Amino acid sequence: MNMILEESLRLYPPVILVKRRVAREVRLGNMTLPPSTELYISPLAVHHDPKIWGNDVHLFKPDRFECGIAKATNNTPAAFIPFGFGPRICVGSNFAMAEAKIALAMILQRFKFKLSPNYVHSPIQVIMVKPQHGVQIILEAI
Ligand code: HEM
């Protein structure tokens, strides 16, 4: 379940941009950034970089996480940042993952489900990334 959630967060990070402001002059690669420069870091872009994830970057493949995030990102921790990175990383990340697993487990204990043929895949950003037309699923009690 962890792998499925991680792969979902990779392909569709709810937060597609995090922002940082440079506090003092800093070298970043071959650039020198003056204080107050604003940096926009896109989890969406990083998560879809074939140089990190390979040519199957756009495919939903939860098993890429089977040996953990470090292995999936070739030891590049900043390549998987659905909850941001560093000292200001999301404080609710563990809570959010636990909550999603509990909710899914409660559904799976009672139902089988499949995607409705009416579903139209159209992720959209309205503050967070979400399915534009909702996600229609067909539940079957077990
Ligand atoms: C799937 C669910 C969630 C996602 C994808 C998410 C994502 C993020 C991201 C990307 C940041 C910015 C991190 C950075 O700048 O490096 C953030 C910050 C934050 N998140 Fe979340 N978040 C989620 C759920 C939650 C929940 C459930 C809570 C509270 C219970 C929460 C509370 C916060 C707070 C307080 C911050 C600001 C942390 C700081 O600036 O020090 N988040 N989140």
UniProtKB/TrEMBL annotation:
Pfam families registered for this protein in UniProt: p450 (PF00067)
GO molecular function list: heme binding; iron ion binding; monooxygenase activity; oxidoreductase activity, acting on paired donors, with incorporation or reduction of molecular oxygen
Subcellular location: Membrane
Cellular component terms (Gene Ontology): membrane
Cross-referenced PROSITE patterns: CYTOCHROME_P450
Cofactor needs: heme
SUPFAM superfamilies (alphabetical): Cytochrome P450
Assigned keywords, A-Z: Heme, Iron, Membrane, Metal-binding, Monooxygenase, Oxidoreductase, Transmembrane, Transmembrane helix
Gene3D superfamilies: Cytochrome P450
Chain sites annotated for binding heme: 90
UniProt keyword Transmembrane, yes or no: yes
Primary location: membrane
PANTHER family per the UniProt record, alphabetical: CYTOCHROME P450 CYP749A22-LIKE, CYTOCHROME P450 FAMILY MEMBER
Record-stated family: Belongs to the cytochrome P450 family.
Protein name: Cytochrome P450 protein
Taxonomic source organism: Artemisia annua (Sweet wormwood)
Lineage, broadest ranks: Eukaryota, Viridiplantae, Streptophyta, Embryophyta, Tracheophyta
